[in-house]
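ingest -> validate -> predict -> emit
validate: passed (alphabet ok, no gaps, 236 aa)
predict: started
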Amino acid sequence: MNQTDWLLSFDFLTTGTFVLSWYLSGFILTLWVIYDVLYVNTSISKPLKVGWPIIIFFFSIIGLLLYLLTCRAPGIANLKEDKKKKVHHKYVIPVFNKVTGSVIHCVAGDGLGIMTAMVIGRYIGLNFWSEFTGEYISGFFFGWILFQYPAMRSMGNYSAQSLWKGGRAEFFSMITLMTGMLLTMKLVQPHIVTSAPLPGTYAFWGIASFALFIGTIVTYPMNWLLVSIGWKHGMT
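emit:
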């Protein structure tokens, strides 16, 4: 299989069968995780209680598996409230779990901003780089204000400190996330559609979800670095 054939194999992202089943399952799983973080797995941070439903909506079963493997300790539903916090804290100590929490902070907020800008950009007919710039700016401010700032405040920082530290972490996370999305839009999308798809098409939502997923993978090493030097706090 040559490179073109390999890239063409991603054309399932444009089909109604895949896109409808992906987002429908994501929606159902999102409802479950909202219930879970509010009434069962209650010890996770407030930003992650918002972030996980967003991630699972876009990533469906993959998002759910990440949640179960890194953020939901086995048997947590059978514990009393006073023991849940201790068990949860112990469960999220491993590096991969901690870094995953950092990634969720990043991708949930950034993803909302990026998707919002992408929808607007496609409808008003922006060219690629104008749309990309709008996505970066929107994603950065969504992630900074809605997720990074509250996370830093929860650590006991003053407002000004939280803005600075949250913006610093967001800057580096966002660069790597958008790099992954750029690679997808430039290398994969042209091989499966003839032009940038509009929000009313299956291709738009299928490719957008895939691009965000690739961005998530690309940003993992950066978030590992940010957690290791103490610029982000991960799942804790």
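The helical segments are 3-8, 16-39, 46-70, 81-91, 95-124, 128-154, 159-192, 202-228.
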